[in-house]
Amino acid sequence: MKVSLFAVSALLPSAFALWPLPTGLSVGTTALRLGKTFDIKISIPNAPADLVAAVSRTKGFLANDKLEALVIDRGASSAKVVAAAKSLPSLTLSLVAIPAGGCKSLSSEAVAPIEDRVEGYTLTVPADGSGAVLKANSTLGLFRGLTTFSQLWYELEGSTYTLSAPVKISDAPVYPYRGFMLDTAGTSTAPFAVSDIKRTLDAMSWVKINTLHWHIVDSQSFPLVIPGYTELSAKGAYSAAAVYTPSDIKDIVTYAAARGIDVIPEIDTPGHTSVISKAFPEHIACAEATPWASFANEPPAGQLRLASEATVKFTADMLKAAAALFPGQFFSTGGDEINANCYTQDNATQASLASSNQTFLQALDTFTQASHAALRSIGKSAVVWEEMVLANPVTLANDTIVMVWISSSDVQAVADTGFRIVHSASDYFYLDCGHGGWVGDFPTGNSWCDPFKTWQHAYTFDPVANLTAAQSTLVLGGQSLLWTEQSGPENLDSTTWPRAAATAELFWSGPGGDVQAALPRLHEEVYRFRQRGVAANALQPHWCAVRPGVCDLTA
Amino acid sequence: MKVSLFAVSALLPSAFALWPLPTGLSVGTTALRLGKTFDIKISIPNAPADLVAAVSRTKGFLANDKLEALVIDRGASSAKVVAAAKSLPSLTLSLVAIPAGGCKSLSSEAVAPIEDRVEGYTLTVPADGSGAVLKANSTLGLFRGLTTFSQLWYELEGSTYTLSAPVKISDAPVYPYRGFMLDTAGTSTAPFAVSDIKRTLDAMSWVKINTLHWHIVDSQSFPLVIPGYTELSAKGAYSAAAVYTPSDIKDIVTYAAARGIDVIPEIDTPGHTSVISKAFPEHIACAEATPWASFANEPPAGQLRLASEATVKFTADMLKAAAALFPGQFFSTGGDEINANCYTQDNATQASLASSNQTFLQALDTFTQASHAALRSIGKSAVVWEEMVLANPVTLANDTIVMVWISSSDVQAVADTGFRIVHSASDYFYLDCGHGGWVGDFPTGNSWCDPFKTWQHAYTFDPVANLTAAQSTLVLGGQSLLWTEQSGPENLDSTTWPRAAATAELFWSGPGGDVQAALPRLHEEVYRFRQRGVAANALQPHWCAVRPGVCDLTA
Questions:
Q1: Domain range for residue B84?
Q2: Residue B102: what pLDDT?
Q3: Which top EC class applies here (chains A, B) (predicted)?
């Protein structure tokens, strides 16, 4: 039977654990189990090694997830049906057509220009004991299909089964950009270990998030080792060990790409750069000036001397050297929260502006164009925060991506500028909001972006609200964001998951999902995450999790 | 020099890591380090084994904390001073007077009646190389002093040092009750493991919290194995393994007592008892009735048939059997959120009320008196939630403790009843608030007790607001509370700490502390917790943590 997306969970004997929900899905009601000799075959000559590795990981999930159905009896009442079920002998992967130049690796497809990525696939799991078939036009699509396949199964008394065969899926993302932003500069004690980031990349891939927007450095610390600019991290990291070396970066981007994830690094400029003053004081205005609140939105103050020719060149060269560490198309130069008073009070900047006869905005334009030209010289496109087109509009290449963060109410104004948009609004997608303010001497102590952003709130966001049809095409997608003034390894998993998964489904499956239908599936995702070693946060008491719908407000 | 409590952190070369702040404290500015042969001696004949064990743990902390000073250079600029410092040869523990019957164990003193507990101590750490002295009138007081001693030290290049010798402390708690409430019934997946509870007990002891208020069971699950009533957990636990056996309970209460912590178990009655219907359906009205919101404040509905003689006896006997597992003076019978409609709709209850010619409130009175008499028969006193004296006032013994949870604005009304009070108000002390609502089909999704309760908010609570001087003596103290509909092992540490520590200081050191002075010390506590294996949450970026005051709103 063909069922509508949002009726699926109501029709099945247990909640249906696919997340994000495929955009085309039909399921049956026949039991099927993995055969004892079940195998995943790749019917592609000289299959790329990263696809082979992904198949191997998928087999591991099938063997180790051991997720019992989230119903009261955990599936026990289906024992006879499962025992009598036909066995699935195999899953066979193939490409619809082998490209002339041969099959590309998953990793190369993951970091290809965003408009060239093909993530769709078709997956057929027959109920009659014949083999399952996964087809796609790309290795990346096959990887997405493998991810879906791994979510079809429950465990009962040694059998790995589904009650929903036959399954026919024709799936592709509604939006090409589904991201997660991680700040590694503001954390307490130490930045996240490479293992923390890898675990997060794994979790991201399970819900088909395809972009890590990595806000690597900020005012507080500079943990990135950039060849030719190693003083930045030597003097600006929290400690000598608290850095990401070029070797770490290679390790991380390789790991990410093999999981279908592109990494967009960010070095925020010209604001949020106080720490650069430790190594290059000549390039920073108002470094650690007090009272900080007069010079910056958060301590410590300090901004690149954007009107200085030397600083413009330093910044462009440094960004280029940093960007060269990453394989992807995009690099974010930031551009948020530029403080005017910092430059007004900085004699050097005032002298530079006067001698060049430039306004602040003209200087920012020159500064930004130089940075972006340097990136373009090595094939990179720029990403910026919304101020670069609204508060401080500068000249930007047409392929620039603009991230809206201050408020979702700014989306329309950004769309009016004609640039492509990634939804990152604090009023929907900031995972750090609602845990109290972190500045000191603040007795009431509430968060600037209260309240906490629930998964339900993000899930019901409308990506094209108030946009014309033409403007809607500018929306590339969206992301959850974790700023880490109050986060670190101790709460990374529980703060991020499952909320970031809700946003991932919004931008893969498209808007219009309702929280009532989604909750049972999201429970399954939480339980599966835990089985795979990611400490996702509880959505409800276990009593509710095994009784889909029973804890609804209206039940 | 003698300094005021709240000026300490401003005067010292680094923040001063005592938490809670001793009520009498004088510090110097001389460096001192632990000698290479430093030892802790117990000058008490036949010292109790649990005190000997506490000394051993303290030595472990001194060796393993390795907490670097939270200043920019992590103490490096003090290297010469530390290298030249005198060595502390020893800490000697003694009792001011050995009781006639011999020295009591720490564990027995921890669970003694609350009015008999003596937690004060004096601690002198001379700067001249002579030995440190810890004295108290009780083994429990010595343990508190050991805890303080372990917080005096930083690590630098292999030296364990302070820059604040001589230290003279004369300390005792302002309030006798400093608690933490943990719910082990509503958690996702499984209740907390014994190891999770033990880790929490350790952390509690580090900040001199002396009571675990253990909300063991609730509507959703019954993980407590009660001798004679094993069907309750056999049919009501999430799984056969998801239980606390009598052996687990003994393990936990023994562990707690050895750390100066009494355990107050709670079996909430007559509401919040839906799960009892699995084993004893005859005792539960409106079990899992729908719509649940008409029968209970949270799903599933179900309340003990308080008007049934058989149920009254069952409840009293069961509570008595449960209470016998615990060594302490108090047992909580709950009494919150009784739903009138549940009883109105229950034919059995209506028939019982009619035949006995009782009102609901009269029946509740009979029910409660029977339960409390059963507890009293084995030497226990009762704890109840505020409804038992406000919404549904029943007959209670004078020694009953009332916990205010609905709102701090109810404290005055409870004080008017003359019962002793433990502050537990949701608007200050609920650690679970502000993470979104957990009921399903609730798109806006905000928490009923928004916003998140920041440590600053709890820390600035006034325990005697609006009370007369006489009423103020009714306040035994207060506690943080963690209800776990959205919590589990994955976020226990980061949700609880350091916020529960802020509340612990409020009730040990007394009100009036200010958040600006407290923040640097609380940072130290967070860093020390992490060194000891508790994943306390970050308060600020590390950049701020090593620059006390610099990230203040007004800095």
A1: 5-171
A2: 84
A3: hydrolase
